[in-house]
Amino acid sequence: DALSNISGKTTTKYVGAAVNEGFFDDAHYKETSSDYYNLVTAENSCKFSAVQKTQGTFDFASCDQVAQFAEDNDMAFRGHNTCWGVYNPSWLDNGNFTSSDFVGILENHVTTVLDHYQGKAVAWDIVNEAISDSAPYDFKANTWNNITADADGINTNYIDVAFRAARKADPNAKLFYNDYNVASSQGWSQGKSDAMYNMVKSMLDRGVPIDGVGLQMHVGTGYDLVDGVIANMERYGALGLEVHITELDLVCSQKNGYDCVWSDDMEQQQGELYATLLKACLDTDACTNFETWGFTDAHSWLEDGTHPLPFDENYNQKKAVGSMLDILTGY
Ligand code: G3I
């Protein structure tokens, strides 16, 4: 049984994982991802710094490897990302550019990337992580914020510029705004979550093209805001938008005041939470993608020993896999 090999209602939803082409020479890595998932995202190789390391020179070799892997295995390919305020090449951050230069650079990047993947990417994170982490949740200070409003008021900020360019370049790709600490509209994440909802609603009111939102969900084994995640997904659905859970991982960490000790019980608890969140996506019409940030504990952006993903370091199924398969069987 594979997570992607599902019947009935769930065949309309993606169950995906981020992958890193750097590990494609490991057959086990490739087989596990293609056996269990029906969508992949490149963890790093489609980002601005990977694709346009030198101004005006586009290098799609690594990003193409992931798109090709998806195509070869009948998986969907989800693009991440065209515009982010951090990890950009130094020519971009340190260049002596005006607002209109930045508009040109951003439009050129978004257009070239979406054009290259026309018909290959089902969705793109057009803008990633623009919103600040504390009240009043305004836009983070970054390079792209040097873009100021158009004189004619068509574009009021860099986010508008990026989304308008994307729709023009590929009218069929679904365009997403993606962020973290925004998954639940209740509890500790309510403030940033409401800010994102308001930002997206205002984009729709202004006629800025957007098709969905990505809820990253880098949370932990003790996450307990699932009702708020469902309520949040539903309010985006009411706006006519899709929701992708894009970067789920459930860390077990003893840092930052979070006292998690890994054990069989903890693995069980983690597995149940993975299944609960999968069920929340399957039960909510607006949710169309359930995706983890990697799939094996051997390769995660999180620290070794924090066990965040559904497969262990040796690609063995952890309890999460069985729990998720049980949920899928019920659909
Ligand atoms: O590949 C080089 C290696 O050659 C070099 O020796 C080493 C030295 O630092 O760096 C390696 O590159 C690192 C790359 O990951 C590959 O491991 C970069 O420094 C490092 O910055 C990069 O981090 C990635 C990060 O985004 C920044 O792009 C993480 O892998 C990736 O998991 C993380 O993903 C983000 C999402 O895009 C957005 N949401 C949050 C998420 C987690 O931070």
UniProtKB/TrEMBL annotation:
- What SMART domains does the record point to? Glyco_10
Q: Name one GO biological process term.
A: xylan catabolic process
Q: What is its EC number?
A: 3.2.1.8
Q: Which reaction does it catalyse?
A: Endohydrolysis of (1->4)-beta-D-xylosidic linkages in xylans
- What PROSITE patterns would the database entry show? GH10_1, GH10_2
Q: From which source organism is this entry?
A: Triparma strigata
Q: Which UniProt keywords apply?
A: Carbohydrate metabolism, Glycosidase, Hydrolase, Polysaccharide degradation, Signal, Xylan degradation
User: What is this protein's name?
Assistant: endo-1,4-beta-xylanase
